[in-house]
């Protein structure tokens, strides 16, 4: 199982990550589609080849082809949106917020899966990419759809752990290559 491979690859100093990885994926209360879509979108957003290579096959096995594609779409569209909206927010000139974005985002309106699932995946990717405006937007849509805070927090817990695992494994690989 890829999850066990990732856990065993983590160094001893990252014992908490091993425990958290097993917990957020192995013991999640999320439905399988929400869980594995979140895992896949976060693995892509983590930019860690090792994490993506290990988690993608299991995600693909647990998702319908439509959900698999939608989770990848969430990672792709949020990679663009998070940079754009975070930058607009961080600029001191508020006039940028009045300008038309002019970016294609059709997948958000028609993701091919339940809107709540896509929004959850988008929120998790936004957590990794650090876009407060996107986090607020997706959280509000989810809350209006009746999603509770525990479920929303579960998505960004997955994001936090997947990102941390990727960072740690990539750092260890870089250190080993230099060592």
In short:
By secondary structure, the chain is mainly alpha-helical.
Identify the notable features of this structure and list them briefly:
about 180 residues, mainly alpha, about 0% strand, single chain, AhpD-like, about 75% helix
Report on the architecture of this protein.
This protein is 76% helix and 0% strand. It has a domain at 36-92 and 113-172: AhpD-like (Up-down Bundle). The model has no long low-confidence stretch (mean pLDDT 95). The radius of gyration is 17 Å and the shape is globular. It has 179 residues and is mostly helical. Its EC number is 1.11.1.28. It catalyses: N(6)-[(R)-dihydrolipoyl]-L-lysyl-[lipoyl-carrier protein] + a hydroperoxide = N(6)-[(R)-lipoyl]-L-lysyl-[lipoyl-carrier protein] + an alcohol + H2O. The active site is at 131 (proton donor), 134 (cysteine sulfenic acid (-soh) intermediate).
Lay out the secondary structure.
Elements: H1 2-9, H2 15-26, H3 32-45, H4 49-62, H5 65-90, H6 106-109, H7 115-129, H8 132-144, H9 149-178
Helix pairs in contact: 1-2, 1-4, 2-9, 3-4, 3-5, 3-7, 3-9, 5-7, 7-8, 7-9
Kindly report the average pLDDT value.
95
What's the total count of β strands? 0
Number of separate helices: 9
Helix content estimate: over 70%
Q: What is the CATH-assigned architecture of the domain at 36-92 and 113-172?
A: Up-down Bundle
Strand fraction: under 5%
Q: Which CATH class of the domain at 36-92 and 113-172?
A: Mainly Alpha
Element-by-element helix/strand order: HHHHHHHHH
The third-level CATH topology of the domain at 36-92 and 113-172 is AhpD-like
Structure classification: mainly alpha
Protein name: Alkyl hydroperoxide reductase AhpD
Function: Antioxidant protein with alkyl hydroperoxidase activity. Required for the reduction of the AhpC active site cysteine residues and for the regeneration of the AhpC enzyme activity.
Keywords: Antioxidant, Disulfide bond, Oxidoreductase, Peroxidase, Redox-active center
EC number: 1.11.1.28
């Amino acid at each position: 199982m890829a999850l066990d491979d990732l856990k065993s690859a983590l160094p001893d100093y990252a014992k908490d990550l091993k425990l958290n990885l097993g917990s957020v994926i192995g013991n999640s209360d999320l439905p399988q589609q929400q869980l594995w879509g979140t895992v896949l979108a976060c693995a892509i957003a983590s930019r860690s080849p090792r994490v993506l290579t290990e988690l993608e096959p299991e995600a693909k096995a647990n998702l319908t082809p439509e959900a698999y594609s939608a989770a990848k779409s969430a990672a792709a569209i949020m990679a663009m949106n998070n940079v754009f909206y975070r930058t607009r927010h961080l600029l001191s000139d508020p006039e940028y917020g009045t300008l038309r974005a002019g970016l294609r985002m059709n997948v958000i309106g028609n993701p091919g899966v339940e809107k709540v699932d896509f929004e959850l995946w988008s929120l998790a990717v936004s957590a990794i990419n650090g876009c407060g405006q996107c986090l607020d937007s997706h959280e509000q849509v989810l809350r209006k759809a009746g999603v509770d805070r525990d479920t929303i927090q579960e998505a960004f817990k997955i994001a936090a752990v997947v990102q941390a695992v990727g960072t740690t494994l990539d750092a260890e690989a870089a250190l080993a290559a230099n060592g």
